[in-house]
Amino acid sequence: MDTSKRILVVDDEKGIRFLLSEALLGKGFEVTLAKDGQESLEKLEKDDFDLVITDINMPRLDGIEMLKNMKKSGRKEKVIIMTGNPSTLGFLDKEMPHIVSQLLKPFGIDNFLSTVIAAMGSMEVPHAATP
Question: pTM of the predicted model, to two decimals?
Fold first, then answer.
């Protein structure tokens, strides 16, 4: 039985996607990556996730529009948003899915992992594989 918690990480910066992915994989999460909101919606059509972690400012389709699309299509994933611009948080509204937390960039990996684990709430968090 697969007990891994599935997380979709959405960010247009390749280095950030890689860093967050490595941190989450190290804690035993199953991670899927998307480079923008459009790619994330395509991945959401194919799979279910426990958590979506998304940047707000991205090309093609930004995080705000991506979240509105998720809500319209009835998605139930929990969401953590990341942004380097706190003024974008004012655009969050009832047309969006449940946002459990917000991270202001830059943030530390320990803070990031604590936020993810807290967002999972009562979900059983997987344990990292020991070498």
Answer: 0.87
